[in-house]
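Quick one from the shared queue. A colleague (R.T.) flagged Xanthine dehydrogenase accessory protein XdhC as missing a structural entry in our internal table.

Convert sequence to structure tokens.
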Amino acid sequence: MNSEWIKALSQLEADATPAVMITVVDERGSTPRNAGAKMVVSAAERFDTIGGGHLEHKAIKIARAMLEEKQEQPRLERFSLGASLGQCCGGATTLLFEPLNAGIVQIALFGAGHVARALVPILATLPCRIRWIDSREDEFPAHIPEGVEKVVNEFPVDEIESQAAGSYFIIMTHNHQLDQELTEAILKRNDFKYFGLIGSQTKRKKFEHRLKAKGFDDAQLERMTCPMGIPEVKGKLPAEIAVSVAGEVIARYNAAFGSKASAPKDTPFEVPAVERLAI
């Protein structure tokens, strides 16, 4: 049995890469692959096969459209394997499309100081994948939690470009000039879901003044969260600040995925069926 899709699942999960699993769930008559055949599709790659040909081409197109639209619910599609699909099998097949890793929050955290060292272990227990970035390797603890990638880069700003769209950015470095450079790079991207900068209202006003002088407008500056953290959690200890910031991160992703998370547990799950008949 070909297990390429199984290996792909493990790697995609480790990398927090969104993907769609396609499964043949029903077959009628002659079909390229039997029920149970699977393949996995990401934005850039595909693993295994459900039989090739126009059917597989169309399935990949649907999967990538789901990724582009950030769909989180599975869906069914039924295909007749006739002339319009360029298939000569003459049967029919039903495919299940299941989004994977759609609810995992990807975080880039800059700085490995006391607050970051208190924050990262909390974030690592949540549905998050963290890239923890600093230029000073000796600032990182000996043990890095599972789900956290340690990145040592002499030029941390270079890491902004490689982060996925829709990421969360958290800045808590030891250097105000570096904070400014990171802030500029993040705001220029403008495709993030959350951007938090550690500091006071005074720091925010100074940054806003400098950023406006460089051409950033009010709409961009409003997307910067500074100070960070939920106001109900007060204190200046690293652990207190870390809990406050983690609470804000949780609140943000719950706002995005809350409707799914708040559904009653005893509510039966139904896969929305969409028939797509190719005659």
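The mean pLDDT is 86.
The chain is about 35% helix and 20% strand.
Added to the table.
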